[in-house]
Amino acid sequence: MAQIVDTIAQAIKRADKTFFNENYTKQAQAVVDGLRKAGFEIVPVKPPEVLVEYAVENIPFGRLRPSELIRALYGTMVENCRKFVS
Questions:
Q1: Is 77 among the domain residues?
Q2: How confident is the model over 26-42, as a mean pLDDT?
Q3: Do 54 and 84 touch, CB atoms closer than 8 A?
Q4: Which of 26, 37, 42, 69 reaches 20 to 30 Å from 78, CA-CA?
Q5: Is residue 31 a contact partner of residue 8, using CB atoms and an 8 Å limit?
Q6: Sign of the CA dihedral 85, 29, 73, 59?
């Protein structure tokens, strides 16, 4: 959690050098960009049905250990979330 807070703080600091720091949209975009650059993604708590369907169609087939299946499913959903969530 400390890494996320630090990433957000640094992104806001870099986003707007004006005296009053009034461009909140620019700051918010900088936060999102900073989080993505640090390896994070912002995703909804409940995935949309279209993303679930996509993941079902794109997870690897065959025998996987449960941990491998979970990693593959998680990766597929997080990496493709921006395609299905606006």
A1: yes
A2: 89
A3: yes
A4: 26
A5: yes
A6: positive
Whether residue 32 is found in the same domain as residue 55: no
- Is 42 part of a structural domain of the chain? no
Closest of 23, 86, 12, 80 to residue 4, by C-alpha: 12
Range of the domain at 79: 49-84
What pLDDT band is residue 47 in, cutting at 50, 70 and 90? Answer: very high
- Comparison of pLDDT for 37 and 27, the residue scoring more: 37
Cβ–Cβ under 8 Å, residues 74 and 43: no
pTM reported for the whole predicted model: 0.68
Per the structure, the count of domains in the chain is: 2
At residue 77 the predicted structure's pLDDT band, cuts being 50, 70 and 90, is: very high
